[in-house]
Structures are given as structure tokens and as C-alpha cells.
Amino acid sequence: MSEAQYIQWFPGHMTKTRRQMEKELSLVDAVAEIVDARIPVSSRNPDIPKMLGKKPMLIILNKCDMADSTVTAEWIKWFEEQNIKAIAVDCRTGKGLNQFVPKVKEMLSDKIRNNKDKGMAGKPLRLMVVGIPNVGKSTFINRMAGVNKAKAENRPGVTRGNQWFTVDKQLELLDTPGVLWPKFEDKDIGERLAFTGAVKDNVVDIELLAMRLLENLMASYKDLLFARYGELDTQLDSYELLCALAKKRGMVVRGGECDTLRAATMLLEEFRNCKIGNISLERVK
Ligand code: G4P
């Protein structure tokens, strides 16, 4: 997290964003929340469901190109079971985005019928797009609305006016006013956000983070880990694992000591660049 982002994270800013959002919610028919498919729980903003009231919500599991497709399919099913529509997309390539408009229409079928009954069949549906920083909100809006001015200003003190984007004559998107933060206070959530790079590395201990990632990967994706780095002794603790990784990659300093910082940096980078494979860090319980 940069200093500017940290400042904006103060509760006063959060309250302001929340109030503004509550006001703007009256302008839309529904909300689309973009989440990271690899961490669909940790990458949600905890306040949104409380603010929504009865407004329908669509979950967009973005970055599904990096997630485990089986787990993503389980999440879609889970959200649908909670009566929340969900789609999996890759906003970088556009894969899955063709589901968006049909899903919105399905979600708002009552509203469409009502509009028709009132003689307002052509009235566009309006959706607010929300998401914590780095989840791909700007990429999504740019893809759907075909414009490049959707990048939000994540700096404190900068307030943006309403930003509306037209998908087609029947659908308009409202970019969220202000910045929504995830729930940093929870240790596990903070950790998962750091694994994916949503939280910047200068606020976390890289070696500790890599050790925790190794524990997670050993527990759920051992085969992928071994395929990338070779077999590792399952009896090792996480520090010893990091050392073993360093040795396998020739990361040793004078005297034969393993360079755990270099190994940690490499592991995190390779995880974030999807070099280890398609990995989801949260599963449906
Ligand atoms: P934000 O508005 O929510 O803060 O996020 P933004 O769209 O800026 O996206 C954050 C990063 O995530 C960007 O990468 C973007 O390219 C990437 N991204 C967005 N959607 C997807 C996706 O579906 N799959 C993958 N793999 N990446 C995605 P960046 O490295 O910060 O910038 P750049 O390399 O695109 O310049």
C-alpha cells in the first residue's frame, strides 16, 4: 500500500465513500461487484452487502485466467445458491464478458417487465460497478464501455463526479465514487490480498509472506509446486522449505547460506505471474 493509499484508508475516508455510495445507489437498478477469482471472499468489500438493501447484485469473478477453473465453477454455483448471480471473466482478453449483458437482463427481468408495463420499454438499465483497488474494475469498464477514461483516481482529497459509461442503449454503468477497501484487519484476508499483490510488498515482510504462501501451496497445490521447483520434503517447516527452494534455484550467499529473501521474492513473483499454475487460494467450504 502506498502512503497515499494508507492515508485514504482512514475510517473518515471510508465513511465518506460509504455515504456517497449510499446516495448514488438510488440512481441504479443493481450493483456489479468485481472480485478476484483467486480470492473471491477476501477481495470483496465487507460493507457492500449491508448497503445494498434489496438491490440485486451480480458478482464478477475476474482474473479467472489465473484461478483454478474447478474452484471458480464451485464459487459460481455457491453464489447462485445464495441467490446472487455470478459470472467468471478474464478482462484482459475479454473471455466470458459476453455473459455480462444477458446475466444483467436475467437478474433484472422484473424491472424490464415493469418498465414495459409502464410504457418505458426503452429505459436503460443502470448498474453501479464496485470493487476494491486492483481487482480490475477499470479494465472491466474499459472493455464493456469501450472507453479509456475509466481509471479511478485512488488519491485522497480527489473527488470525482459521477462517471457514467454506456454499454449499449439498454445498459449504463456507474463507476463507484471513491475507493472501497477490503477488510485489512483480518490477518488471513490481509495475507491473501498480499499474495495476489493487491496489497503492496513494502508493507509486508516478504519472507514471512512467501513462507505462508508455501504452506498454502503445499496444502492444496503440491503437485504444481513440485512440477515447477522439483520435489520438496513434506516434513520441512515453511522456513526450511523456502531454504530448499533457494538452494534448488542456486540462490546461495557466501558461506553456503541460502538467500531466502531472493527466493521469497521469486516465489511471489512467479505466483503472481501464474508461472506455478492456475491457483485459487479460497475454496467453498
Ligand atoms: P482497478 O481499476 O480495479 O484498480 O484495477 P485495474 O483495472 O487497473 O487492473 C489491475 C491490474 O489487473 C492490471 O494489471 C490489469 O491489467 C490486471 N487485470 C485486470 N483484469 C485482469 C484479468 O482478468 N486477468 C489478468 N491476468 N489480469 C487482469 P497491471 O499489471 O497493474 O497493469 P497492466 O499490466 O495492465 O498495465
3D structure, described in words:
- The protein is α/β, with parallel strands linked by helices and 285 residues long.
- Helix content is 43%, strand content 12%.
- The protein has twelve helices and six strands.
- It has helices at 3-8, 11-25, 48-52, 69-81, 100-107, 109-117, 137-145, 187-196, 206-220, 222-229, 238-248, 260-272, and strands spanning 30-36, 57-62, 85-88, 125-130, 163-168, 171-175.
- A six-stranded mixed β-sheet has the order 3-2-1-4-6-5, sandwiched between helices.
- Helix 9 (206-220) crosses helix 10, helix 9 (206-220) crosses helix 12 (260-272) and helix 11 packs across helix 12.
- It is elongated.
- The two termini are 30 Å apart.
- The model is unreliable at 148-159 (pLDDT under 50).
- Bound molecules: guanosine-5',3'-tetraphosphate.
- Guanosine-5',3'-tetraphosphate binds at residues 62-63, 65-66, 90-92, 131, 133-139, 152.
Q: Which descriptors would you attach to this protein?
A:
285 residues, alpha/beta, 6-stranded mixed sheet, 12 helices, 6 strands, 43% helix, 12% strand, elongated, binds guanosine-5',3'-tetraphosphate
Distance between the termini: 30 Å
Name the hetero compounds present: guanosine-5',3'-tetraphosphate
Q: State the low-pLDDT regions, or none.
A: 148-159
Structural class estimated from helices and strands: alpha/beta
Largest sheet: 6 strands, mixed
Let me know the number of strands: 6
Output the number of helix runs.
12
SSE run: HHEHEHEHHEHEEHHHHH
Specify Rg, calculated over alpha carbons: 21 Å
Silhouette: elongated
Mean of the pLDDT scores? 88
Determine the strand fraction and express it as a percent band: 5-15%
Helix content: 40-55%
Q: For the largest sheet, list the strands in their spatial order.
A: 3-2-1-4-6-5
